[in-house]
Amino acid sequence: MLDDDRVRADTPGCVSGPGPGPVFLDSAGSSLPPRVVTDTVVAHLRRESEIGGYRAANERLDDLAEVKTAIGALINAAPESIALSDSATRSWADFFYSVPLAAGDRILVSEADYASNAIAALQRARATGATVEKIPSDGSGQIDLDALAALVDERVKLVSVLHAPTNGGLVNPAAEATRIAHSVGALVLLDACQSAGQLPIDVAELGVDALSATGRKWLRGPRGTGFLYLRPELARSMEPARLDLHGAEWTGPDDYRLAPDASRFEFWECDVAGRLGLGAAVRYLLELGPHEVYAAIAARAEHLRKALPEIPGVTVRDLGIRHSGIVSFTVDGVDSVEVRDRLLAQDITVTVSHAGSTLLDMTGRGLRSVVRASPHCFVGFDELDRFVAAVAALRA
Ligand SMILES: *Cc1c(COP(=O)(O)O)cnc(C)c1O
């Protein structure tokens, strides 16, 4: 069991005490970092101001290397398989734009796929003559594995599997979808942006070729951080679409040599303070016990999934069989933006997910927007109940 008091004490954004404090339900957007993350970032920025960025980074070389070790420990990967970046989208695109495509090739995207992934797929399809097709969903809303098996052939070069979407509690059967994609030799790129930090991820079990995630959401790291995982053989063999003097070495007037591992997908320049902060966030999660944290998130989301439908006019919009910590809903007669703003006036933070972020799924269901509540382990059940009461009062 997680020590709730410790977790809250470690989180400056949680204010306990007399009177209603803030209720923070946006860890799917940008979470509240634990104190150690902010302290790590600020301390490094201070150090840079004292001795310059190069010397400050050199003092922290071991800690910087440790960032990948910590991420690897979380997802069961070797540090050599991790490339750090500044966002999940950057990492996703770094891999996606490096997959060779030609006219007639097929790219499959998940129905719940994120807009940035779909836009990139459409752009490359236009440029190469490949096609982009949607993987159908089954009656529950998750990837329809039978339909996927019927859809794939040897022209499918890449399958974009969305682990957990931005707009609701769906969790896709990623390992099963990966096995189907691999049966025809396609590469699988898993968008784990909304699962890293709140659901167990074991890349060996999942079998994916690559995985992208961000720092600021469920991992509670700083903004402007993210990472890419590559299957070890790919980390050693794949040519990135773009290189610099960190991803490759200039070995002669006409030649260069790629870095021997996933770091070939990184550029040299980076936000060192942010990376150290990401390392602190992942180490903090490992120290708390990831499975305890995941269970605490699931319990909070389930609490909301029980309470919200009891309010007249409120509909929970989560799809799928397994659920993540994202609870999305609509309120009859009250626009999602108004719901968000009226809750914000009571210091309750939720976000709105608009159709444009997950176009295929939302238009398929005739939804323009949903309100998204995403409680992390630091949110108290009393706070959840305050949120539910505030939602109930919206239509009064
Ligand atoms: C937020 C999100 C992204 C993008 O993450 P960035 O760090 O903003 O690039 C990608 N996929 C999903 C499912 C997301 O929710």
Strand content of the residues, in percent? 15-25%
- Cα distance, first to last residue? 38 Å
Q: H/E order of the elements?
A: HEHHHEHEHEHEHEHEEHEEHHEEHEEHEH
Please outline the major beta sheet: 7 strands, mixed
Helical content class: 25-40%
Structural class: alpha/beta
Low-confidence stretches: none
Biggest β-sheet: strands ordered side by side in the sheet: 2-8-7-6-5-3-4
Give the number of DSSP strands.
Answer: 15
Q: What is the number of helices?
A: 15
Describe the global form: globular
Radius of gyration: 21 Å
Q: Can you list the ligands bound to this structure?
A: pyridoxal-5'-phosphate
| Arithmetic mean pLDDT | 97
Describe the structure.
Helices cover 39% and strands 17% of the residues. The strands form four sheets. It has a seven-stranded mixed sheet with strand order 2-8-7-6-5-3-4, with helices on both faces. Helix 4 packs across helix 11 (272-288), helix 5 (88-96) runs parallel beside helix 6 and helix 12 (290-307) runs parallel beside helix 15 (381-392). The longest helix is centred in the C-terminal third of the chain and has 18 residues, at 290-307. The protein has helices at residues 4-9, 35-51, 53-59, 61-75, 88-96, 115-128, 145-151, 174-182, 203-206, 232-237, 272-288, 290-307, 336-344, 359-364, 381-392; strands at 23-24, 82-85, 106-110, 131-135, 156-162, 187-191, 210-214, 226-230, 248-252, 255-258, 314-316, 327-331, 348-349, 351-354, 369-373. The protein is globular. The model has no long low-confidence stretch (mean pLDDT 97). The chain is an alpha/beta fold. The chain is built from 15 helices and 15 strands. It starts with a helix and ends with a helix. Strand 6, helix 9 (203-206) and strand 7 form a beta-alpha-beta unit. Bound molecules: pyridoxal-5'-phosphate. Pyridoxal-5'-phosphate is lined by residues 87-89, 114, 116, 165-166, 191, 193-194, 214, 226. Residues 87-89, 114, 116, 165-166, 191, 193-194, 214, 226 line the site of pyridoxal-5'-phosphate (PLP).
